[in-house]
Amino acid sequence: MAAAQRLRDCSRRALLCFVLVAAWEAASGQIRYVIPEEMERGSFVGNLAKDLGLDLKELSDGGVSIVTRGRTHYFALNDKSGHLNTLERLDREKLCGHVEQCLLNCEVILEEKMEIYALQVEITDINDNAPSFQEEEMELTISEAKAQGSRFRLEEAQDPDLGVNSLQGYQLSSSNHFSLDVQTAAEGAKYPELVLEKSLDRELQAVHDLILTATDGGDPVRSGTTQIRVVVLDANDNAPVFSQPLYEVTLMENVPQGATVVTVKATDLDEGINKEIKYSFGKTKNKLSHLFRLEDRTGEITLAEDLDYEESKHYQFEIEAHDGGDLVDLAKVVIAISDVNDNSPEMTVRSLIRSVPEDSPPGTVIALLNVHDQDSGENGEVTCSIPSSLPFQLKKSFENYYSLVTDRALDREQEAAYNITVTATDHGAPPLSTSATISLQILDTNDNPPRFEQAAYTGYVRENNPRGASILSLQASDPDWGENARVTYSLLLPLLPGGEGSESPVSSSISIHSESGAVYALRSFDYEQLRELRFQVQAQDGGSPPLSTNVSVTLWILDQNDNSPEILYPASRSDGSTGVELAPRSSEPGYLVTKVVAVDADSGQNAWLSYQLLKATEPGLFRVGLQSGEIRTARSVLDKDALKQSLVVLVKDNGQPPLSASVSVTVVLADSLPQILSELSSLSASAAAAAGGGGGAEPQPGLTLYLGIAVASVSGLFFSFLLGLLALRLRRWRNSPLLESGASGNFSGVPVSQFVGIDGVRAFLHSYSQEASLTAGSRKSQLHFPQPNYSNTLSSQKSCDLLYIGRCPVKTTPCFPTSFLLFGHFLIITVVYRDLILPEN
């Protein structure tokens, strides 16, 4: 019989092992399995990989984890098959006690996808426990005076199974005096009562032995027995009676030890020893006797240990009141425990990313947090928060799970790392909180181009600088990190029309150090050739892709005093001589003789020129304007003053040190042209005598003869032409109306453009205004200089060209240049004859 029962038990257990109920709840993301208790270790619970739609490769890579609240793990995931298996034998009664529905909750976390699924496994009951009594034998003392129908409460049997597998009924062995009546309490528990069916007689039978059997409703049915020993006592008419059959008390879980829970009270109407009452715990568990303390004389129940609402929410037990005659009354005590907020929230970081790039989009998941509070009600409701100033946000993803995500764009340059303090606070009074700090590093991306310290740069370098000299230094900074912040510099060369063969002046003039940004000169600059150099410099970082910034640079070449003044007028010939300037002897002080014109290729104060008379034939006769360079008479010309005055004018700039140049100016003092010719002839003769006396070389006779013949021939032809032309002109003048009216012909403004003297000096006479007149009817043309025109400028009137024969372009009076030509040619012949032919003879 027992073997068949065990076989049926094993068959049922094997069948239940393969019963699996998997229910997907898409709205909540929950997976549920149902398995029976007492399954062997490693038993199959469910195909988790299939139910989640996971690839076995994800399992083998360790991307799925199962988190169980608490320290004990009951299930494990087989990464090869994807099956969920048990880690140990599960005892529902041990795990859940008398809870009707035994649920084990855990979470399945997909690390790669940052997804969470709730996993719920319900442990169903099997009839693995038989009803049992706390004691194998119980003893009742009943007075023989008890009336028929009296009831006596018996010890209840305990069966940790649930439902039909739990205690279902009691049976009593056959007896003539007693019967069994099963009562059902308000909470549904069944307890047996012994009913006296027939009066007892101690003298006939002092002890009655009964067997009480408790059975459950399982298949097979399990049972437990206890022996009841009834001792018949002498009559005790009145039993103790409690003031109330049920004592209900509510305690806060933080009640201190030693506090009074409740005081029970029973009374007995008997006298003497039968009235004395003693209190004791009824048939209860040992744990309660340790948790509560009962004063047997007073009935005061005190707290012996600390209460914990999370461990048990209520307690119930019985108190017996015994009188001196061993009569008993029972009262039930029910203690409800009220929760207090004595548990801080628990926070666990399930998944965490230590670093994110700064260009991560908003909503990037940083961490996955789980919070739990063992308290109940509002004391167990938890809210998570982070400082509002941080660029992050907490989102409740699933039940007690929170996702820490980025709320806005991150910027490593503003904040390179964050210590995010997450605070979990319950709703108790006062509230309790728990904090956890998450450290997050922000990785740099190349999102900042280099920035120059200035919007534009200006540099200065003096000309004649040495090659390779440092001109200026450019500095650009990049707030990025690492290679993204490494800045290199380069020149941006302008495109030239010449194409690839052309070379930019920038590239041949300057270079830039790619690392330091220092600009160097590749050549020596010349301010007179190049005064300004404009170019652009590019600063580029080392990111990928690189970012760059351009800046304009202007390089100014500073002048140095490296150019001496250059004299433009009077100009020197190859032999070092200059022209001759004319000044009338009748000149008054301040008469403008000529002007020295000079320029300096430098600039600024290096080009400020000053003039001074360095040397003069007659000191004090002339002066030079310090700034203008004008040579004027300082006093009137005296008779003793030489005809030819040699002046040396020094032109000096204002540089440091100053540079200078000098020029020699020859000034001839004369009022008329014959006087000039006479003086020049004497000067020439003196020069020739000095040359002869000095042992100069004698001219060759043949060359002199040929030259004399050539001059004589040309002069004869020239004079014949001039005489004929002169006769023609005189005839026309006689017939002209101007001659009849007695008006005299005037010509003015006849400048001598070039006059070649004996010493070969070139004289510029165009600076002066001269007038000549010819009296009608006179046989000889007389040329004379009128009074000088004291002018402060070097202006002259328009004059006729010496080679122009006819009327002047403006006036109708004939200019008569023929006499000038005749006289000039005569002068040339005379000079040549005197200087060449006479010495030869």
Automatic annotation (TrEMBL):
Signal sequence segment: 1-29
GO CC terms of this entry: plasma membrane
A single BP term in Gene Ontology: homophilic cell adhesion via plasma membrane adhesion molecules
UniProt keyword annotation of Cell division present: no
Membrane topology: Single-pass type I membrane protein
Membrane-spanning residues: 705-728, 815-833
Domain Cadherin, residue spans: 74-133, 134-242, 243-347, 355-452, 453-567, 584-671
Pfam family, one: Cadherin_C_2
UniProt entry tagged with the keyword Zinc: no
Residues forming coiled coils: none
Cellular compartment(s): Cell membrane
GO molecular function: calcium ion binding
UniProt keywords, alphabetically: Calcium, Cell adhesion, Cell membrane, Glycoprotein, Membrane, Repeat, Signal, Transmembrane, Transmembrane helix
First-listed, main subcellular location of the protein, grouped into a coarse class: membrane
Gene3D superfamilies registered for this protein in UniProt: Cadherins
Function recorded in the entry: Potential calcium-dependent cell-adhesion protein. May be involved in the establishment and maintenance of specific neuronal connections in the brain.
Protein name (Swiss-Prot/TrEMBL): Cadherin domain-containing protein
Species whose genome carries this gene: Sphenodon punctatus
Lineage: Eukaryota, Metazoa, Chordata, Craniata, Vertebrata
